[in-house]
Amino acid sequence: MADTKRGRDKKGHDEEKRQRERELDEEREQEQEAESDREREDEQ
């Protein structure tokens, strides 16, 4: 496949989108862990 500016730009944007999605997933996991910790504390 030919290397074009459009192709490079799309690849860059796709990578940025994947990075944002990874960061959001990590945030959600941390929030869920914090919620689980709070629930465990409430049970005690």
Short note summarizing the structure:
The chain has 44 residues and is an all-alpha fold. 89% of the residues lie in helices and 0% in strands.
Description of the structure:
- The chain has 44 residues and is an all-alpha fold.
- Helix content is 89%, strand content 0%.
- The longest helix has 39 residues.
- It is rod-shaped.
- The model has no long low-confidence stretch (mean pLDDT 93).
Keywords for this entry:
single chain, rod-shaped, mainly alpha, 44 residues, 1 helix
- Tell me the fraction of residues in β-strands, as a range: under 5%
Total strands: the figure is 0
Q: Describe the largest sheet.
A: none
First CA to last CA: what distance?
A: 61 Å
Quote the average pLDDT: 93
Order of helices and strands: H
Stretches where pLDDT falls below 50 for ≥5 residues?
A: none
Helix percentage range: over 70%
Net shape: rod-shaped
Summarize the SSE layout with pairings.
Blueprint: H1 5-43
